[in-house]
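Onboarding guide, step 5: your first structure request.
Type a short instruction followed by the sequence, for example:

Predict the 3D structure of this protein.
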Amino acid sequence: MSLFHGAHSTITCVAVSNFIYFYTFHGLKQILVGPNAKQSASKDLVFACLSGALNVFVTNPLWVVNSKLKMQGRGTADLQGRRDGSGGPLKIKFKGLLDGLIKMVQSDGCAALWNGLAASLMLVSNPAIKFTVYEYLKRQVLKRQLSSTSLSALPAFVLGVLASSVATVATYPLQVVQVKLRHGHGYSNLSPNANTAKLFIYMIRNFGIGSLYRGLDGKLVQSLIAAGFMFLSYEKISALIFALFGLRKAIKSA
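The system replies with structure tokens like these:
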């Protein structure tokens, strides 16, 4: 069961994050360009970046607590810069996301909930690249399916996997640094408050560029499967919502 530590909190974080991201993405498109505007990769990239930035600011505290829940095992987390009676890191047991948020604020202050924010903002490029590549590939596929305005399950899954693979490989070093900033890098000869740039330089100088890609294979497997199902669900849910709104408009105009 140790492989599923933090699973509940991760599901909560993903649900909140995806809701904010996709709702903001489509909201901005509706407000700024309208429903009938011509689509383009550049517009998708701009809206994806804006949506991602808002998502990061809102959900970063949830992901910080989630990282501690997963990496410390059975909800035991190091408190930033705190020591117990023996001089070791002071540990505290988080019962869940809400409990972790409260205890971190009480112990480390609100600022601790935004650890790794700079790396997270740079990682806005991950969903931005992923969503932009997906939308581009989707348009190319739909051009060849003149009778359809949405993707079926298999194409949506495959395009989600392709888009995620591009985004994951491009941004993986940032993800490695982000996790270390959120959880604590653990390097004794580097300041615990080192920023993103300093941690990047330290890792490259001491461990080589390869250290920024450790665990990429596992991350690819996890990301590709998750992205495939995410975009598959996204297409089906979007089609359902648009169909419901279309039905309501038809009823009102009748």
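Each response can be followed by summary notes, for example: Confidence is low (pLDDT under 50) at residues 80-88, 247-254.
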